Amino acid sequence: MTLPVAAPFLGFGGLAQLISPIEAQSFIARYWENEVLLVRDRCAARDSLALGEWEDLVIRAIEKGKKVEILSVPAAAADQAPELAKIQDAFAQGRSIRIVNAQEVFAPLETLCATLTSELSHPVRVNIYITPPNRQGLDPHVDDHDVFVVQMSGRKRWRLYGEPYLLPLEHRPRLQFESHMNGTWGGADWGARAWKLAEDEQPSLDTPLETGQMFYVPRGVVHVASSMEATSVHATIGVHSTRIADLAALVVDRMAREDPALRRSLPLGFARYLGDAHHLVPEVEAALRRVTPRAVRDAFEELAARHIANRKEAIEKEAREAADLAAKIEAEPRPLADDEELRFAPDTLVTTTETSVSLRRFQKGTEDAHFPKGFERAIIEIVHQRTFRPTDLNALSTRSARNLVRHLIDKGFVLRLPIES
User: Fold this and answer.
1) Cα 353 to Cα 293: distance, rounded to the nearest angstrom
2) CA 383, 384, 390, 392 torsion-angle sign
3) Rg for the chain (alpha carbons), in Å?
4) What span, in angstroms and rounded, lies between the C-alpha atoms of 300 and 304?
5) Which of 5, 70, 96, 375 could bridge 371 with an S-S bond, Cβ 3.0-4.6 Å?
6) Taking a C-beta distance cutoff of 8 angstroms, is the pair 168, 144 a contact?
7) Binning pLDDT at 50, 70 and 90, where does residue 336 land?
């Protein structure tokens, strides 16, 4: 059985705006983790990321204490640059500038990252690269996360080569004695790294990227970019995925909470002599045979909860906005209309069993909502759309749809919108 890339009923409005005019579900089915995508058409979402003077953005980053780095080609350790004069001097000498976590200093990127992180269920962060005219920003390299590259000003020549590592991992699990490590290891199958091209190696794609255009580059693809006749500024929007390996590790971790056999130590002196390793094969095989659907489900739900918990600030902001909406609705009481535009509360987790469907929000003061299995199709039709109307619940009668929506409003899963004056 192949794991679905994404459920077909999920809404990806923010992603669709970023990659417009490509449809989100078409992108997910064909390109995600699989194929490079080049979008040349302009669109409003990418145009909103257009940048004027890059120095203003750097000043804002410095004032907020964010990391601004001076890059080198050939690669060397990036210089930290807390002063604008030092940055301008390096730029004049032909070196590129990188603003790390630029979503924290540029409002349009902050909104985009929050939306994508919520929709994709994977953390999304942005670095901005500023490159002087006719310069190469970085050595040829492989990223360990998928990236959407948006040209914010100027233009840049991109050359893409092969894929020597299929979906390289960004990190490996920490072991008990590795608590001091940062979790990243540049071994053969792990992490981003520079890549030395053969002298006669030809790119599979060689093209300029103009202002407002974008690339999607799956992790593992070798790429290198150079500015052209003017200063280039581009944003690298990185999706830092949670992997099947992470879920498997968490499944075993949860099983160990119940199974003392998994909590036994490895043989004493195991790091000195590997001769007894074959004796552990039956132990590991037996542990894997004990994996149950419930263990996988519980681990999957824990991953979702931890992802949402990491979005604490964004969720608190969304909660404040929801409270403001509720206050406006209370100030202008009106009956619920069948064609009234509504929206689902963000970060709602839908879980299903053979007999029921449940909704959960990982916020204090919220309660789960449980429904018979017969309501699953109706809930799926609306839960991940940006907005909906009670009449959109085609699987239910008008009366049942109205009652369901009222219940979801009372439970805080559905938000009413104020009437535009």
Assistant:
1) 11
2) negative
3) 25
4) 6
5) 375
6) yes
7) confident
Helix ranges (H only) for 347-391 are 376-382
Residue of 147, 126, 122 lying closest to 61 (CA atoms) = 126
Closest CA to 308 of 250, 242, 358, 370: 242
Question: Rounded CA gap, 197 and 157, in Å?
Answer: 17
Alpha-helical (H) ranges within 80-238 are: 84-92, 107-120
Q: Which of 89-93, 304-308, 362-366, 370-374 has the lowest mean pLDDT?
A: 362-366
Residue 65 has pLDDT above 70, yes or no: yes
CA–CA separation, 291 and 286 (whole Å): 9
- State the Cα–Cα distance between residues 384 and 359, nearest whole angstrom: 12
**Residue 304 burial by Cβ neighbours in a 10 Å radius (0-12, 13-18, 19+):** middle
Q: Single out the residue of 57, 106, 105, 68 nearest to residue 90, CA to CA.
A: 68
Q: Are 228 and 158 in contact (CB under 8 A)?
A: no
Model confidence at 363, in pLDDT bands (50, 70, 90)? low
C-alpha span between 399 and 23 (Å, rounded): 34
Angle, vertex CA 131, rays to CA 151 and CA 56, nearest 5: 80
What lies within 8 Å, CB to CB, of 402 at 6+ separation is 336, 338, 390
**156 touches 352 (CB < 8 A):** no
Task: Record the pTM.
Answer: 0.84
* Strand partners of residue 299: none
Q: Give Cα 9 to chain centroid, integer Å.
A: 19
Burial of residue 308 (number of CB atoms within 10 Å: 0-12, 13-18, 19+): buried
The torsion of the CA quartet 79, 81, 87, 90, rounded to 10 degrees, works out to -20
Mind listing the pLDDT tens digit for each residue in 147-200?
999 999 999 999 999 877 788 877 666 666 555 555 444 445 556 666 777 677
- Residue 244: closest CA among 193, 296, 283: 296
- At residue 384, does pLDDT exceed 90? no
**Spatial separation of the C-alpha atoms in residues 358 and 352, rounded to whole Å:** 6
Residue 259, amino acid:
D
If you search the block for the tokens 């000498």, which residue do you land on? 93
Give how far Cα 193 sits from Cα of 97, 147, 170, 220, 398, Å.
19, 15, 11, 10, 57
